[in-house]
Design a protein that fits this description.
By secondary structure, this protein is an all-alpha fold. The chain has one helix spanning about 5-84.
Length: about 80
């Protein structure tokens, strides 16, 4: 049979192991939480860039339409001036 001091040492050892295990679990949860936040933040950033790119493309498209319209008007004016 184990002596009281041996039982006490075993109990203390188990307590330390349990504390260590709990600390590790807490750290793992923190890492996962941080990782999840990073993923969400990254996704939001990608979405913002995508939206900005779409806005820019739309703006360029409108600008191109205006430029074509201006060219048509200029051609009409030139044809009108040549007729007169």
């Amino acid at each position: 049979m184990k002596s009281y001091s041996n039982l006490k040492e075993d109990l203390e050892q188990r307590r330390k192991e349990l504390e260590s295990k709990q600390k590790k679990q807490i750290e793992d949860r923190k890492k996962k939480a941080i990782s999840y936040r990073d993923i969400v933040a990254g996704n939001m950033e990608k979405e913002q860039k995508k939206q900005e790119k779409m806005r820019q493309q739309e703006q360029e498209r409108k600008q191109a339409i205006r430029a074509r319209e201006a060219m048509k008007q200029e051609l009409k004016r030139e044809l009108e001036s040549e007729k007169n």
